[in-house]
Design a protein that fits this description.
Layout (H helix, E strand, L loop, with lengths): L1 H8 L8 H7 L6 E3 L4 E3 L8 E6 L2 E6 L5 E7 L4 E5 L2 E2 L6 E4 L3 E6 L1 H10 L1 H27 L2 H16 E3 L10 E4 L5 H8 L3 H13 L3 E3 L6 E4 H10 L2
Antiparallel strand pairs: 1-9, 2-8, 3-6, 3-9, 4-5, 4-8, 6-7, 10-11, 11-13, 12-13
Helix pairs in contact: 3-4, 5-8, 6-7
């Protein structure tokens, strides 16, 4: 049942009933992958879909000069990769585990059988791809036309949507604070917004002074005041 529970968390299969999930169990083997592993790259011949059952994965591209640009960070339930004519828009990117992950793969034959047996899965796949492309286009637009501060605010907003966890609301001043359930360094934030670590550090200090972000008890995590973040992002437009 643990494996079925994992499958139910995958975006692609989340709306399926228990009996339907059981049919996919044999074709979705569990793989435990260590932190810092390159799972896929544009140079790998084997093309498959990757389903993240737990953990976090960074998708990034390399510039002509070898500089890494992080395009997205995916967590539990997300899908990436490509098989044949089916792609999630990440086929020309590198994928690296940010922490120990549990990931399974589906090849072309398996996937075609799944969407033949369950047409609703193909519709969900289209929805996932559409949302992924929309997110990437929005990110690239911010990269091209926005100030560095606005890019950071936008990035924190997106991370809060994906990895934000509500805090115990025991005090009035805790209202609207969430904690990012992802350990991310200033350098990694810089790579996601086309900047440098020193600039990100300076901007985060400014946002801390403005009461928009603050350090969590675990120094590697940060908290975000959602209302203030949205207000600051609106002011930048």
């Amino acid at each position: 049942m643990d494996k079925i529970k994992y499958l139910s968390r995958i975006q692609l299969f989340g709306e399926l009933e228990l009996e339907e999930l059981k049919k996919f169990e044999p074709v979705t083997p569990i793989n435990v992958i260590k932190k810092g592993t390159i799972i896929s790259s544009p140079h790998m011949d084997k093309k498959v879909l990757y389903l993240i059952k737990s953990g976090k994965v960074r998708l990034y591209k390399l510039s002509a000069g070898g500089k890494e640009l992080t395009i997205d960070i995916l967590g539990t339930g997300h899908v990436f990769g490509e098989i044949g004519s089916f792609t999630t828009g990440s086929g020309n990117m590198y994928a690296e585990t940010l922490e120990d992950c549990v990931i399974c793969t589906i090849d072309k034959v398996q996937f075609e059988k799944i969407i033949h047996d369950q047409p609703s899965v193909s519709l969900k796949f289209i929805e996932i791809v559409s949302n992924r492309l929309k997110d990437v286009e929005e990110l690239l637009e911010y990269m091209a036309y926005s100030s560095v501060r606005k890019r950071l605010l936008f990035l924190l907003h997106k991370l809060a949507e994906k990895f934000g966890a509500e805090l115990p609301n025991g005090k009035l001043d805790e209202e609207n604070w969430i904690q990012l359930e992802i350990s991310i360094t200033h350098q990694e934030l810089a790579m996601m917004m086309g900047s440098i670590r020193e600039t990100v550090t300076s901007l985060l200090n400014d946002l801390t002074a403005e009461g928009i972000v603050r350090k969590a008890r675990n120094r590697k995590l940060i908290k975000i005041h959602v209302a203030r973040l949205k207000s600051a992002l609106e002011e930048e437009r």
